[in-house]
Design goal:
The protein has 463 residues and is an alpha/beta fold. The chain is built from 13 helices and 23 strands. Helix 7 runs parallel beside helix 8 and helix 8 packs parallel to helix 10.
Length: 463
Amino acid sequence: MYDLLIKDGLVVSPVSTLSVDVAIKDGKIAALGEFNSLSSHETISARGKLVLPGMIDPHVHLWDNDPSLELNAADNHFTGTVAAAFGGNTTVLDFAYPVKSGSVTEAVTARRTDADDNVAVDYSLHVVVDSDSTKTIETIRELPKHGINSIKAFMTRGSMAEDYSLLRIMCAAAESNLLMLVHPENASLVRGNRHSMIEDGRLSITEFPNSQPVFAEIEATQRAILLAEYAGVVLYVVHISSGRVADIVREAQRRGLRVIGETVTHYLTLTEEVYARGDGANFVCGPPLRTKTDQIGLWDALCDGTITTLGSDHCGFDAAQKALGKGDWHRTPKGIAGIETRISVIFSEGVIKGRLTLPQFVGLCAANPAQTFGLYPRKGVIAPGSDADICIFDPTVEWTITPNSLHFDWGWSPHDGLSVTGKPRTTILRGKVIVVGDEYRGSPGDGQFIHRNSPCARDHTYA
């Protein structure tokens, strides 16, 4: 006797689609096939719907902190992950930030203390490194014992702005078989631009894109790839905002380098034109939104497999917090809230518009992140033995995104007014139904911290 059957849906994998029932027992996928409803305690009809693996958002900032403004984002580990669940996500990868001791393992402990009893979905962590101190490097080597296989350097932050320090961290990551994430921007160019603009009084939101120009991202990506090649580390380039940066990643891959590309929803769907709007401050993020040409280049990179993971880079500062800057870009907290809308927007803009196939969509949003970050095959696929993480998705429903249509009140949405096709209707976490329609049926702490295996190189992904 199974615990739960999902019947009559179209099961989508990263390589195919198949009309089969899904049987769940003890929180795991037990079998795929044709089953009689009497063989299960509970049955869900998925007729006319897609049965997707629980979506994985590889890049979120929950309850984020802007230290320069002494400000925490409006959502927290519970409310943010509830919104994730309504968006069809069953796993998110958040960030642990440095602590005063310099120990990255203590940073993990501190973040888990905040999250473990509160998360509504499963989660893991990337660890942010901003120093190449002896203690930092020593504790980096301990991360695999804590189930962590990825670290991140902001190339504009701390000693990571210095090439030698960044290279030392990359070498330590390579020695420990960790995946190296980089936020690529040239620190000197960004600092110089920002200082000059502030001195000149160029503080309006319309000027914001000039504070972090695309050439700063281009140059830093090239440099990060060169350093990673020397260190022998697998490099993961986060939130690629420009088609020209995607071109650099593509060329590195053609040379056989282990470079993985990620982009996020807002760079695929929004452009720098929003900064001229009355609500332009809401869209202040790092890097800034780019041009329509960049957007086209990013879609091309998704379609040809250069970019293999797609996150939200969710950072939930609400409209009131954005307004604290009073139209001054350098006093406005950076970040865009997109944890709930990622799947619907990408399905509508990608699959419905013919840019992506259904297997590509599942690869980008579930299977590839699972493989890249050592979660596969426990996560990212509907297969016997995998966690029973499932999103039942209605591919036909048409709806308009508004702040009121979402399940946390940020007071704004980057896609406010966008009409989309497709919406998650049921979310199942390890066999437990936690979302049905607009009803949340879960509890704080339903989610678990997931220990991850060694990361995979790019050529193991499906896209």
